[in-house]
Structures are given as C-alpha cells and as structure tokens.
Amino acid sequence: MRINIYGLGYVGSVSAACLASEGHRVRGIDIDRDKVDSINNGFGPVIEPGLSELIKAGRAAGNLCAESAAAGDADVSMICVGTPSADNGSLSLEYVLRAAAQVGDFIKQQSAYHVVSLRSTVLPGTMNQHIIPTLERHSGKQAGRDFGVCMNPEFLREGTSIKDYFNPPFTVIGQLDARSGDVVAGLYSTIEAPVIRTDLGVAEMVKYAGNAYHALKITFANEIGNLAKRLGIDGTQVMKIFCRDDKLNCSPAYLQPGFAFGGSCLPKDLRALLYKAREVDLEPAVLRSILASNDRQVEEGYNLIRKTGKKNIAMLGLSFKPNTDDLRESPIAELVEMLIGKGYQIAIYDHEVSLARLRGANRRYIEHVIPHISSLMKDSIESAVACSDVIVIAKHSPEFVEKLKHVDGNKLVIDLVRALPHRTGDAAGRYEGICW
Ligand code: NAD
Predict the structure, then answer these.
(1) Atom 41 of ligand 1 has which residue's CA nearest to it?
(2) Between 20 and 30 A from 148 (CA), which of 35, 109, 275, 358?
(3) How much is the pLDDT for 422?
(4) CATH number given to 295-433
(5) What sign results for the dihedral spanned by CA atoms 315, 321, 322, 324?
C-alpha cells in the first residue's frame, strides 16, 4: 500500500521503517526539517536499536522517503504526532488536530477510497468528537461513505520498539466500519499476532487501560518492595515468587469490571498490611487507596438503584461471591444495609445463603450480626422478584440467568456482575450494567 505517515518521532519513524521493510511504499511527513533530512539520509531521527539499518534498507529499496508535506496519491494516512500534556494536565490535541486538518486537505484531492488511521494516544471520544469532524470539514467528504477511519493504538516501548512492532501482544483496530478496518488489518497481515477489531471508543480506551495498569503494577511492586525491605525481607524474591502464579496473580483473574470485593480475606489482609506499614513508618499510597475505592464501588451500585426512582428492589445474591455462603464483609450485604437505611423495600434471594441450609458460624453471623437482613430473605427467585420494580443481580449464578428469561420484561434490571452478557443498555433503560 501507499502510506503517508504524519509525525516521525518514536512511533512514526518506527512504523515508517517497519512498513517500508514489509514492502509498502511509505512517505514520512514531519514539520521538523531535521527529522525529514535524517530519514532521507538513511538515519533514524530518534535513537532506537535497528532503526537506522531499517531506514537505510527502505531508502535503498525505494520504499521510504520523507517530506514536509504530503504529495501525490496514497491509500492510507497514519497520524503519529505527539499528544502531550497541557499545563493543566489535560491532553493537548493541538498537534493531532493540525495533522487531521492536513490529512483532510489531502483527501479532498484524492479520488480513490482512502483510510485515515490514528496511532497517537487520544482519550475516548476524541475520534468521534474531534478527529472525524476535522477530517470531514477539511475534505468536504463524509467519513464512512467517502473515506475510512480507524483508531489503531500503538503499544511499542522505546528501546525495543522494532522488536515490539514485529512481535506485538496483539493489534487493536478500532474501526468506523468494516471497510476501514479491512484496509488497516491488511497492513499487519504478515505479523503473527491476534488482530482484534472493535469500535473506536474501545480502541481509544484500551490504550489508556494498558498504560494505567502498567503504572499501577510498577507502583504496586515498589510499595510491596519498600514494605518488604523495612521488614528485613528481600522484595525482589517476594515479587519473583508472586509472578510465578499465573492463575491468580498474573492472569485475567480479578480483572473483570463489576462490583466491589469483600469476603473474609481481602479486606482483612489489606487492613493488616496497611497497619504493619504504619508501624514501620511507611505510607503506601496506592495500597491505602484500595479500600476507599472499593467503598465507592458500593456507592456506585447504590447510585444506579437510586437513579431508577423505584423503591421495591429484588436483590439476587447476598454472599460475597458465587459458590459460598460466607457473608463476612459481603459488599452486597453492605449495599442492602445502605438501601434499608434509605427506606427501600428489599427482597433477597441467594440459594447458597438460604436460611434453611445455613449452619454453624454463618447461621450465627446472620442471626446475630445481620438479623434485619435475614428477615428479608425469600426462598425462591420468583417470590423475591414478584413485588419488585427493580431486579439487582449482585452475584453470578446460572439459576439467575435461566429464571430471568421468564421474568416480566417491564421490570428494570441492574447488573453488577455482567450476569447477562447478551444484554446491553437498551433505549427504554430496562437494563443497566455497573461498568458497561
Ligand atoms: P514524538 O514527540 O517523538 O514525535 C511526534 C512528531 O510529530 C514530532 O517529530 C513532530 O515534529 C511531529 N509533528 C507534530 N505535528 C505535526 C504535523 N502537523 N505534521 C507532521 N508532523 C508533525 O512522539 P511519539 O513519542 O512518537 O508519540 C506519538 C504518539 O504516540 C503520542 O500520542 C504518544 O502518546 C503515542 N505513543 C508513544 C509511544 C512511545 O513509546 N513514544 C508508544 C505508544 C504510543
């Protein structure tokens, strides 16, 4: 393909060199004359292992050139310009919008179908609210009909960017429509990695989720390491062993957005760790913020219910997670208490916590610690749901999914755990998820 790449910094120059090495005809465009000259002289405009070699080879093969403006024809325009922080911390769109305007002017002259692919990191909504309108204004054409648009976030790391380009974990293509996505997917047909095609907003957000998570992981490891050292323990050893657990620690486990955590271990152990940190004069800010954030997730659930304006609630689930009757520190019990305090009528169904089955410690807990909640329990979904206007699904259970198929469609459903993956928010507002 003939590809124009706007911005020849880390992302743009590496993309240009790698795409040229794959046989595409690449024109790099930068407002910085030094970067343009450097590519045309066969050198990397930034320091990256292997970059100059690839650029030299691309120049020799006649597949790569650099200029300060687009010319001729092209099939794809890739925007790779910077999106720095503004003084107030917000994302500056200054460069990316200027580049989008140039691309719009360029596609005004193009008679063939052209696809614009954004590789710069931009916040969710930017494509629809800013980039596409700018492209349309400058081209006089309509996105989706006259030209294609994709958001193709870049995940390379400086220092290993060429290796990362050819061995990515995946390629994410947010597409305005299938035709746009097909063109961008074609650029990566030789790379052995899953290509994930999604909508523009998800692609924009995935990039931020990744970077926020990387930052969180570094800080988490540092906080555990600092505490370990204060306690005379080798933090490196701790995290090395920690990372060997690829079932729970380094895995998709616990990475599904939904309701708050609870139970007899996580809150207790986090509190104990924080108390210990205080004893050795440490302030692990990230670890300390976890419980407060978890409390806010319970409030988030409460707010969803409050906004319905209804007062009769069926709560499906009470114990802190599926397949247990353990009620200690259940965030669902906390949510129920919040609702009772605000005058809601609650009916609760949880097969695992059904009073008839409870014995020993859990029976004592429910009778002595939360007797007001036990009196609200029903022995079937049907009786819990019968007098309710809103059904809150607070825990996973195949029984809920099956029985809810037959429930009156006018009742509102609030899903805190993505129990009904086939349902999404509908125009009538009869289904709402907590994080989707
Ligand atoms: P950079 O600052 O190294 O390069 C940006 C280039 O764009 C500069 O050479 C600048 O002169 C050029 N430019 C600005 N306006 C232009 C215009 N109108 N036309 C042509 N060129 C123009 O930036 P970078 O580090 O390559 O990052 C680019 C984007 O990719 C950012 O949004 C960044 O967040 C994202 N990203 C960066 C990395 C990374 O490791 N650096 C990784 C993934 C994603």
Answers:
(1) 10
(2) 35
(3) 77
(4) 3.40.50.720
(5) negative
